[in-house]
Q: What sequence folds into this?
């Protein structure tokens, strides 16, 4: 099983190229990554965004969370994960942070 949380270490050489460099093997990560953007209301500052990020990253399979903060409106929370996430799991994480998930789009 390939552990994706470990750094890439070339086998048999370096990852530099040139006529005197040893070849190396490139390992390709899973192509089944999923990205979904969620609308969240109630966030007003960087601390709010950090709280939502922290809670959403606790969901199994989440690799990245990016937030476009819109004070007084619907902020966009872009979540990249190994596979599609259950909206209820994301909603629970956002609720735990103290905010409201109002929609989702792939």
A:
């Amino acid at each position: 099983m390939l552990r994706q949380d470990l750094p890439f270490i070339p086998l048999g050489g370096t990852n530099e190229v040139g006529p005197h460099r040893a070849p190396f093997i490139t390992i390709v990560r899973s192509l089944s990554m999923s990205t979904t953007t969620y609308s969240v209301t109630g966030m007003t500052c960087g601390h709010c965004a950090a709280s939502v990020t922290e809670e959403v990253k606790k969901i199994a399979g989440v690799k990245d969370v990016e937030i476009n903060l819109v004070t007084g409106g619907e902020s966009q929370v872009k979540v990249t994960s190994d596979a599609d996430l259950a909206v209820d799991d994301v909603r629970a994480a956002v609720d735990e942070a103290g905010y409201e998930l109002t929609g989702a789009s792939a």
About this structure: The first strand starts at residue 34 and ends at 41. Residues 46-56 form the longest helix (11 residues). The chain has a mean pLDDT of 83. The helical segments are 46-56, 87-97.
